[in-house]
Predict the structure.
Amino acid sequence: MANLKDIKKRIGSVKNTQQITKAMKMVAAAKLRRAQDAAVSARPYAEKLQSVMSNLAQREDGEGHALLNQRGTGRALIVLMTADRGLCGGFNANVSKEAERYIRDNEPGFDAIDLMIIGRKGRDFLKNRVGEHITKVYEDITSDATYKTAQLIGQEVVDDYSDEKYDAVYVIYNAFKSAIEQIVTVEQILPIQPKETEEVQEGSVDYIYEPDRGEVLSQLLPKMVEVQIFRALLESNASEQGARMSSMDSASRNAADMIDRLTLQYNRARQAAITKELMEIISGAESIK
Amino acid sequence: MADKLKLEMVTPYKRVLSEEVDELTAPGFVGELGILPGHTPLLTTLKVGELTYKKGNEVFHIAVNWGYLEVEEDTVTVLVDTAETADEIDLARAKAALGRAEDALKTLPLEDKKYMIMEAALQRALIRIQVADKGH
């Protein structure tokens, strides 16, 4: 029978842990709200831009823009979005594993695959697995992703693509479905694939373009890449908070179970000790007779 | 044909406006352009400037920063990086930025890369001040 003091100590330490996990859960819940709001308010912009672009692409007659042209398979870049912190369940591992799997599966198809990682945890996970593919790591940018951040990454990606350093660019991130569900998503961001809209060509009305269509297109397309990265960053951030919240919630619950079990054990041990003492006293008294 | 324009303005952070307006003036890339109901379809880039719209007898001013404007069937969609109404502008900050930009422009050589950046900053500050003044 474990001794009383040990069990008591154990209960104390589990209680401490529970307090921490509870606090983390609350923090994550508050952050989740904010992250979710940000992700939702970014949606109209992305949707509008998408529809403007589809409109534009539909009227595309022949001469495409560099960012629209399929260049076939050459070098590919994968932008992987993970978190800087752990303790959020399978969040980092799932998305990192997907990146690893993607690289292994597609390695034969490309001349080379480079990996740009956002978030410390992704780097830690993949360093020893596919370290040779990692070309760039960004840290400490996910927690308060601004449009500026996305713009910088977007510009870098577009520049590399325009310089023909890469022929295709993908993003892998956790899409936010609900607080307890994240979906690992692979999206191609370059070359841009305009969504086919169901709209019939009733829009044969000629648009006026200012300054001219080529110019409009060449300013709009890089924007599209930035917006997609921005959206992925926001979704990834919301997913991270959601994952942390639910994993901390179950950690708190596990701690509560453990405390219950230990308390029971403690009471039993205490009772056993009392019984033992009583027996000693009685048998002592008995022997004096 | 509707006698109103539906104006939608969005930035990456939020939907700024979704309103019925009577007329609209925007800082187009090749020059100021006015849009009335029944305008022909148009797609243009915007530069840093002041967007004005009229609703009844009221006139509203918004400082916008680089974006797009699309007109289609009496719906005007404006996509901009930033949009600030007169109340949102911190006049003191804009003036400080203006001062900084002016000082920098005086010392920097014309071919310096920073010159362009500061010039853009100067533009933004000027527009902000202009819009803020009209709002009060």
Remarks:
- The longest helix of chain A spans residues 213-288.
- The longest strand of chain A covers residues 168-178.
- The helical segments of chain A are 4-58, 91-106, 120-130, 147-162, 213-288.
